Amino acid sequence: xxxxxxxxxxxxxxxxxxxxxxxxxxxxxxxxxxxxxxxxxxxxxxxxxxxxxxxxxxxxxxxxxxxxxxxxxxxxxxxxxxxxxxxxxxxxxxxxxxxxxxxxxxxxxxxxxxxxxxxxxxxxxxxxxxxxxxxxxxxxxxxxxxxxxxxxxxxxxxxxxxxxxxxxxx
Amino acid sequence: xxxxxxxxxxxxxxxxxxxxxxxxxxxxxxxxxxxxxxxxxxxxxxxxxxxxxxxxxxxxxxxxxxxxxxxxxxxxxxxxxxxxxxxxxxxxxxxxxxxxxxxxxxxxxxxxxxxxxxxxxxxxxxxxxxxxxxxxxxxxxxxxxxxxxxxxxxxxxxxxxxxxxxxxxxxxxxxxxxxxxxxxxxxxxxxxxxxxxxxxxxxxxxxxxxxxxxxxxxxxxxxxxxxxxxxxxxxxxxxxxxxxxxxxxxxxxxxxxxxxxxxxxxxxxxxxxxxxxxxxxxxxxxxxxxxxxxxxxxxxxxxxxxxxxxxxxxxxxxxxxxxxxxxxxxxxxxxxxxxxxxxxxxxxxxxxxxxxxxxxxxxxxxxxxxxxxxxxxxxxxxxxxxxxxxxxxxxxxxxxxxxxxxxxxxxxxxxxxxxxxxxxxxxxxxxxxxxxxx
Lengths: 170, 438
Prior knowledge:
Number of helices of chain B: 5
Number of strands of chain A: 7
Largest sheet of chain B: 16 strands, antiparallel, barrel
Radius of gyration of chain B: 35 Å
Oligomer: heterodimer
């Protein structure tokens, strides 16, 4: 009976668009940093900015444990996506599309990032796919996923680099 | 024995309709009613029509018991959920956390849904209006290649890739070529092994743009990298095996490509130039390339390659072919600078003569919004007695043009080419092209 009850949250949550029901990771409500999130089974704890860029650009395709990397992006128009395009990709949506179109055409990039509509969907996708990596606002990250350090810093830390409004970094 | 369940079922149905049955029990009860319908129908003639009040009362009591049970189960579920150890912040996450089931990835990698196509198709094409002062040339509208780029993730590590190109020749009739067809197994970032037909990793241009003019800044390839059936001098395509990957080199970003294949035919220029099915000799063409993409300068790539093959032309001795290539390119979002040089060496066996054909091109462009003006200078110089390409000779000259991105997926280009040809008349050519992806 207990075993069934433990499995139920995982089973029931698949295919729904509602919150996974995990407790949020504590962040100040005013924090505008974006958390880079991976599946909790992923052994990675820290990524440098250069590594993060290679991963998001599709230049690094596998994690150290051999899992294929699946990058997940929010759909165009989202503020978080614009911040990631500006600070990680350093390009706009058009250049982003051309980059992946050309990369897949040459065969160097296996697939373009998966696009999802909401942060909740990102969390659910990362929760379900061991090789996934995505981003959500630091205040939205819950314990269904793991937030990785970027250059040894976490969202909310001083000098954390990925923010909705980079100029507001203190 | 006369024992009828029909009144009980009717009572149940009434209870369901009035909402007295808990939601989670409705489905099993309805299913049970459905399955027992035939039996009940057989009993109907002898069943009493009035509902037994005592039976209904007992059912209501039973229902109350079930509701109590549901409450207990919900309480147990809440306790069990609370008992799941909650992960702390990343730095403190214990490795023994229960890992979530990788449902989505399993579905994608292990199970193949036969009702769902695995193919992804992207198209590229162009149309060009062009003319020149070359004798015999006429100003013409030309349909470009219709390139269907098809990929498929066969499995987690196996990937299929192909370029199927529909192209009209100088006789105006369309033909179909499978320009690339590659099945690649990925061992990771450090080793990918493919088999099929691919573009040789000679230099940069050949593997950067393939058969799409839309991706290229200019209206066409540099002469050095023209396709075989358009008079190009390189073995642009190869059929065989390829291995590629990253070389552990930190910020230097080294990569390698190793290829072995049939190479290009040399028996007769009338033959299909790519040896798709049969090699004219047992010697295989080999190519090895290494290049760097340093972290310090994003967009910079510099590399070398060497290609070796043995050609077997009809009625002449075999010819050793060696191609040395070097490139340094910078492709940023706004600024582009491509530089490539190569030396193609043909060494007929049994003689001490070698025929060297040097060539290079440099191309610079800068984006200003939707506009990208560009200039290219190219040079190739083959000996008049070159045993394989006697018609090439000396060609050199600049091209200037403007690319205008009409939309995200459509580009208009206008280009002027000047080509000096040794003692022959120089060629002036103009081209207006619309290249697009769909």
